[in-house]
């Protein structure tokens, strides 16, 4: 085989690997799972948005209390994720409003052991991506199985 053919085959292998990686990332999440992610820290909100999107979830991000309540009213969410930058009192307000709007599970990200839990949330998770994604995947699978 000539050098052009070898280069072509190598390029083709690269593309197959790249496409496979992209598809694998898309297939990880449940494609019908719609997440409302809320934070008071814009950088963390963007990062969490990209992480969820990379896992194949349909994610809507809301910065602050008012924006989260507006998004919640639009409906259609299967899961709510409340960032660890949100003060506990505001988390409680969000949980109350979300519960009235939709029966979707609520994940509260915790700053640490010293932060009081928002008891009304369904899950309390460390904000690191790995444990968060594990819980989101479990909850998402339960939602799909129940539907």
Describe this structure in words.
By secondary structure, the protein is of the alpha/beta class. The chain has five helices and five strands. It has helices spanning 3-28, 42-54, 65-74, 88-101, 129-146; strands at residues 34-39, 58-63, 79-82, 106-109, 123-125. It has a five-stranded parallel beta sheet, with helices on both faces. Helix 3 packs parallel to helix 4.
Question: What are the main properties of this structure?
Answer:
single chain; 147 residues; alpha/beta; 5-stranded parallel sheet; globular
Compact overview of the structure:
This protein is 55% helix and 16% strand. With 147 residues, the chain is α/β, with parallel strands linked by helices.
Whole-number mean pLDDT: 81
* DSSP summary, beta strand count: 5
Percent range of helical residues: 55-70%
Q: What is the tally of helical segments?
A: 5
Q: State the shape.
A: globular
Element string (H = helix, E = strand)? HEHEHEHEEH
Placed side by side, the strands forming the largest sheet appear as 2-1-3-4-5
End-to-end Cα distance, whole Å, is: 54 Å
Kindly name the structural category.
alpha/beta
Low-confidence stretches: 4-9
How does the major sheet shape up? 5 strands, parallel
**How big a fraction of the residues is strand?**
15-25%
Rg over CA atoms, rounded to whole Å, is 19 Å
């Amino acid at each position: 085989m000539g050098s052009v053919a070898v280069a072509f085959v190598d390029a083709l292998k690269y593309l197959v690997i790249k496409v496979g990686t992209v598809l694998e990332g898309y297939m990880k999440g449940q494609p019908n799972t719609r997440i409302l992610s809320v934070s008071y820290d814009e950088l963390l909100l963007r990062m969490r948005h990209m992480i969820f999107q990379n896992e194949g979830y349909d994610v809507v991000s809301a910065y602050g209390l008012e924006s989260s309540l507006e998004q919640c009213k639009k409906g259609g969410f299967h899961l709510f994720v409340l960032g660890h930058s949100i003060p506990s009192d505001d988390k409680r307000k969000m949980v109350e409003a979300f519960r009235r709007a939709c029966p979707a599970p609520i994940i509260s990200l915790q700053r640490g052991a010293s932060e009081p839990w928002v008891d009304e949330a369904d899950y309390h998770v460390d904000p690191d991506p790995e444990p968060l994604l594990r819980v989101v995947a479990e909850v998402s699978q339960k939602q799909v199985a129940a539907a």
